[in-house]
Amino acid sequence: MIKRLIPLILVATLCAPVADAATKSAPSRHAITNVKKKIILSPSPSPTWPPKDFKKNGEVYAKIPTAKELIAIASNNKVLTRQLAQLVDGVPICEKYSCGAVQLASLNGCTWWEITAKIVGQTSADDKTIKVYGNIRTTIKETAGRQITTVLLVSQELLKLHHAVSGIKAKCHHDATLEKIPATTYTPISD
Q: How far is 169 from 153, CA to CA, in rounded Å?
């Protein structure tokens, strides 16, 4: 009999209101209670293939992102964010030098990538003839099949000269290399 009474007493003690009338008023009949809704997170949709707005050349897909797209990509990419935040003479790198970017993907994956581009601009303020000022060559590490990667191309040409990155080409390599990867070289073309 005592074994039956102990659980009943315990339940009655836990359910009984505490007599603390000095600090709390009795809840009104119309009291609002906070009910937390259970938030169900759905997984991110898998990226579509082939990637939207990418141009295809063999197994390689490429796209030149707009400045707005590049900022959105950088918000989810720590490496790209770090590259864009790199300071040169106290100024973000792409606010000092002419930069470009390309998004790349491969159907089968690549052991390493080789990206080349030209830096072009007007010959002078008076002469609007377009001239090639230098070449950029960037190598990046391997990517898996259908993995989209964004590559920042940085020249050493001052942005105030209104030069632009042009003629971007990407090559997906399937063989090993002895080169240091990642690496970027800029070769100015002398007059």
A: 11
Rounded to 5°, angle at Cα 183 from 181 and 187: 145
Q: How is residue 27 written in tokens?
A: 């809840």
74, 67 Cβ separation under 8 angstroms:
no
DSSP state of 71: H
Average pLDDT, the chain: 84
Q: pTM of the predicted model, to two decimals?
A: 0.72
Q: What is the pLDDT of residue 5?
A: 45
Among candidate residues 111, 7, 136, the one with its CA nearest the CA of residue 59: 111
Is residue 127 within 8 Å of residue 86, measured between CB atoms? no
Give residue 21's pLDDT band: very low, low, confident or very high (50, 70, 90): very low
